[in-house]
Amino acid sequence: MIIENVGIFAKPGYRSIDITVKSILDYFQSKNVNVFLDDKTAKRLGIKYQITPQVLEILDLIITVGGDGTVLYAARSIRDKIIPILTINMGSMGFITEIFPEDFKKAIEHILNNNFILEERSRLDIQVNNLQIPYALNELLIKTCPESKLIPIKIFLDGVFLEKFKADGVMIATPTGSTAHALSAGGPILFPSIKGFLILPLNPIELEMRPIVIDDNVNILLDIETPNTDIYLIVDGQFVFKIPKERKSAEIIVRKSKWPIQIIRFDRKHFIKKISEKFGK
After folding, report:
1. Residues spanned by the domain of 183
2. What angle do CA 198, 201, 202 make, to 5 degrees?
């Protein structure tokens, strides 16, 4: 792999992360590689080269420095581009992140020698009343807030009626998101290689309602009514879209995005080891 232009997304607010970013900058500058930073990190470090839509067109590699949330932020920022992402773990959870800062130079050597694996992660393409909102790498969460009121929800799969129920909300999660919010809400863990999505009702009053895993080629239609309060669509815990109660109802279409995320891996058993690390006794 040839690396001429690199983009870095970093978690703000930590001196150790800024030090790591500076060391990465110094390394690439010594190799005559162009480096661009997300706007907040660039301003914080006094660097003028920022990641813009034009810069995204020329990037060969993206590096995230932080935790899984930083990866989610980078994924949302690159929108409809497919750029390999090297993830440096300086967060707390680290289900997505791959290497530690001290392994950075060795990782770059492996990348330059094409000694790595590209792990493809699906994203959710979401439309609300025909309005496009950002892709989700983890999940789409639909709920009322701050009030907690039951939401009437109808679900259709490929145009076929599946179920009608009332619940605190509903979550649509990717395999990547199955180890995030969906897991804490009672959903199953899905391996990244599984070509499926998880539909997870949140505290439904109908006892027969259970999580369901569907083929990721199936289009999901959610027909919801606003229960005299605003409804919020939360993408990856970072982007919020409000459906005002005055609309009375909304139609939400969720399908697999044509633009997956590519994570650089060096270990084919990375996910199994992460599961063992987090839950093994």
Report:
1. 124-256
2. 125
Same domain assignment for residues 137 and 248: yes
Is 224 found in the same domain as 266? no
Q: Give the CATH number of the domain where residue 142 resides.
A: 2.60.200.30
Indicate whether 146 and 230 sit together in one domain.
yes
80 catalytic, yes or no? no
Q: How far apart are the first and last CA of the chain?
A: 39
Q: Is the whole-model pTM more than 0.90?
A: yes
Q: Of the listed 38, 68, 125, 236, which one is catalytic?
A: 68
Q: How far is CA 108 from the centre of its chain?
A: 24
Q: What is the pLDDT of residues 79-127, one digit of tens each?
A: 899 999 999 999 776 789 889 999 999 999 999 999 999 999 999 999 9
